[in-house]
Amino acid sequence: MSLLPPQILKTIEEFQKLPGIGPKSAERLVFHLLRSSRADPAALGQSLLTLKNQLRFCSTCQMVTTEERCVLCADASRDASTVLVVEEPLEVVAFEKTSYKGLYHVLHGVLSPIDGLGPEQLKIRELVDRCSSGAVRELIIATDPDVEGETTAVYLRDRLSPLVPTITRLAHGLPMGADIEFADQITLRQALEGRRNL
Amino acid sequence: MSLLPPQILKTIEEFQKLPGIGPKSAERLVFHLLRSSRADPAALGQSLLTLKNQLRFCSTCQMVTTEERCVLCADASRDASTVLVVEEPLEVVAFEKTSYKGLYHVLHGVLSPIDGLGPEQLKIRELVDRCSSGAVRELIIATDPDVEGETTAVYLRDRLSPLVPTITRLAHGLPMGADIEFADQITLRQALEGRRNL
Asked: Could you say which of A7, A171, B69, B147 would form a disulfide bridge with B73 (CB–CB 3.0 to 4.6 Å)?
């Protein structure tokens, strides 16, 4: 028999399934919710319940949305011939702060055999279908510059080069504001290789 | 108009009300819940919804429970003449791992005027009522050894000494496994003052 009621233990257990939240943090969050006047377990609970029910993926770009097509795909002023491929929905939000005016495709992950993520677990079939129509003229692959991201980029290039005339990858190099003294050697090599006329 | 559906924004907002969770962590948690096969927003949502509905405070010791009295207060084999006063329910769980056989009283906080926490916001009236019967012979005050905890301990001693014959405070000193070289001076002074015959 436990000292804490099963409702509390169950909630602690559910919180522990979230990334970066261990047993102690989960306990702290649950007891904070019980005591706080600001955070409300019912409000958080209700919004979590409606989350999965009401959300779907855009039929074209797989962005999270509540409609059949997301606001970007439904916007006729966007350049539908350019598609930027990202790993996660939040990366679309990041690119929308730039002046990019094409469309997106959200993979919802990267190839990672160790985590059981193959091409079938990602939205790659949907991307192939989309490119088969011939309407996509350039595919910009914007997966993260790490092992899984690079592997996914190469896989997509090999699979989609028969369907899309131009397939590009985001530039690698020094980020703005970086201190060259502290840049790692791979970044420096890529910055040298990618040098441009001034 | 936001790129992310309002359901997601609302859930991110609710997560941000939890301690130690900022905007970026909240986003990460929500998108993890949407994608993960292990963590389930519906399960977490449901357990949060039942949390506040089904939980109550024990009528005697104010521990969280689902019954009128908690399992400890309902246990006739416990020594009801000794009451250990703690700040939070989880501290009861911690003391239950020792050989303590008395009962508890959970204050649900400490005196902290800066956070708007006075005696009325804590379960102090309930403790006074409980001691008024004369059944409590020793009150062990186990608030944290910090400014708020010490202030609360002194307040409780002043208020309850007419009602309870013995009021004690947990011993201060070196924790087990501590390295004296690195102990702070207040702890060392308290360890010296509290020295005992060997």
From this structure: B69
**Closest residue, chain B, to A63 (C-alpha):** B4
Distance from CA of A54 to the nearest CA of B (A): 8
pLDDT of residue A160: 95
Enter the ipTM: 0.73
Specify whether A32 is located in the same domain as A83: no
B62 touches chain A (CB under 8 A): no
Which of A34, A44, A63 minimises the CB distance to B55? A34
SS (H, E, C) chain A: CCCCCHHHHHHHHHHHCCCCCCHHHHHHHHHHHHHCCCCCHHHHHHHHHHHHHHCEECCCCCCEECCCCCCCCCCCCCEEEEEEEECCHHHHHHHCCCCCCEEEEECCCCCEHHHCECHHHCCHHHHHHHHHCCCCCEEEECCCCCHHHHHHHHHHHHHHCCCCCEEEECCCCCCCCCCHHHCCHHHHHHHHHCCCCC
Q: Supply the pTM of this predicted model.
A: 0.72
Question: What tens digit of pLDDT does each residue of A39-77 get?
Answer: 788 888 888 888 878 888 999 999 999 889 999 999 999
Which tens digit of pLDDT belongs to each residue from A101-154? 999 999 999 999 888 889 999 999 999 999 998 899 999 999 998 899 999 999
The CATH number of whichever domain residue A146 belongs to comes to 3.40.1360.10
Q: Which domain covers residue B43, as residue numbers?
A: 6-54
Domain count, chain B: 2
Give the closest-approach CA distance of B98 to chain A in angstroms. 14
Q: Does B147 touch chain A (CB under 8 A)?
A: no
The mean per-residue pLDDT over the stretch A165-191 comes to 86
